[in-house]
Amino acid sequence: MTGILESTQRAMDGALYQFGQDNAIAVALEGQGYEPDASVPYLAGHYLPAPTEQADLFWTERRRAIYQIDVSYPQLAGTADLNATCDAVNAAFKAGSTFTHGTIGVEVTSVDFGPLITQNGWATRPVSIKIEAYTWRL
User: Is 67 in contact with 131 (CB distance < 8 Å)?
Assistant: First the structure.
């Protein structure tokens, strides 16, 4: 059995992987080797956990976190396709969306776009997805 940390990351990684498959874009996940091709756009998922909150009557543990997806395109490709991919990520992970892994439920509370970062031949825009994960009382 996996705990809330691993299950939350698996729920979000699974959703990102499926998004990549559905949209024909490469996906790099934490802890899995990935060497980007300098001419092929890709998404990178990062799980940034926050402190656990005390239990109440409905759940035994609740965690707020950010699941950040870095949308990266070759730097000289312009921003139109990059921004369109960010909009597609926003639509797939919009506030109110839910994902699960085992007994863990994950709900998206908001999605924010970060500034465009250009570095090492890549243009990257972070998409920060604020989430809450729960283990439900049975």
Answer: yes
